[in-house]
Amino acid sequence: MSKANNFQRIRELNYLQKAALAAAILERMTPNYGLFSEATGFGDEQVFRNALNLCWEKLLLPKSKISLEKQIEKIEPNVPELADFDMFGTYPAIDVSTALLGFIQGLMTKDDVEFVNVAKISQATVARYIEFLLISEDVTPDNKLVREHPLMQYEIEVLAELIDFVEGMGRITSDSIKQLKAQAVSDGQTNIGLAIESA
């Protein structure tokens, strides 16, 4: 089976499956923001955590009166500016912000392209991190090195497993969401391999 075509598989999922998958990917990305925030004293990870929890709730209870606009207003001031921080961690923090804002936008406009983009942003974060690692080892990164790097192979593998889970999930229930969330962080690390402190 070709593992490369995760994105084709994602496109074939239905709207709710895509949304649940994107939320699971965000579970793996969000702690990167927390680590950045801890290191710099900028921003509030709790704002991201709460917004993501409310998004899960919205998937479960689409008619609930959750104001997603309010979440966007809360997140925006917490998005770091690249120019303000001289550290690699700023990139993953911005990627989390972009992915989460896009995801909320997708829920508001029922545009599932936004959900596919979350998976793309996650992979781009991993690719950028691998380039950063290679450069710090004095290796010039190229596509092949990035693609074949264990971290990228692992990202592709985890994504494939999450897609498998979502495909077999059936109806979205609080139980299936609990299982999906647990599956997303079962390895105890973020998408770039940093340890997640269990909440």
From TrEMBL:
Tell me what this protein is called.
DUF416 domain-containing protein
* Gene3D superfamilies in the record: YP_001051499.1 domain like
Domain of life here? Bacteria
Tell me which Pfam families the record gives.
Answer: DUF416 (PF04222)
The scientific name of the source species is: Pseudoalteromonas luteoviolacea DSM 6061
